[in-house]
Design a protein that fits this description.
three-stranded antiparallel sheet, 2 helices, alpha+beta, two-stranded antiparallel ribbon
Length: about 80
C-alpha cells in the first residue's frame, strides 16, 4: 500500500530493519544515506477498507509518511506514539 502511494515522494518502507528501528527508506538521498538510523517512535497505520498496514517510523518521518495517504481518496493514515 505504501509503495503505491510513494511513487512521487521517494519514501518507501524497509521492513527488514532490526526490531525497534525506523523502517523508512528515503530514495531522494544518496544510496549510503537512504536508510534511517533512528529508533522507531511512532506507528503509522495505513487503512484501505478492511486492510490495515502498520509502518514504524522515527518522529521525523511519521508525518511525511502519513501524508502519503492524502494522495488517495481510499487510504487513510493515523500516527500513534509507541509506548515505551
Amino acid at each position: 500500500m505504501v509503495r503505491s502511494l510513494s511513487v512521487r515522494s521517494g519514501l518507501l518502507l524497509w521492513y527488514n530493519q532490526p526490531a525497534g528501528a525506523c523502517e523508512v527508506l528515503d530514495t531522494n538521498r544518496l544510496p549510503a544515506e537512504q536508510r534511517c538510523t533512528r529508533p522507531a517512535a511512532c506507528a503509522v497505520w495505513f487503512r484501505n477498507g478492511p486492510t490495515e498496514v502498520p509502518a514504524y517510523s522515527c518522529l521525523a518521518h511519521a508525518a511525511p509518511l502519513a501524508s502519503l495517504a492524502e494522495r488517495s481518496p481510499h487510504v487513510t493514515a493515523t500516527v500513534y506514539p509507541l509506548g515505551r
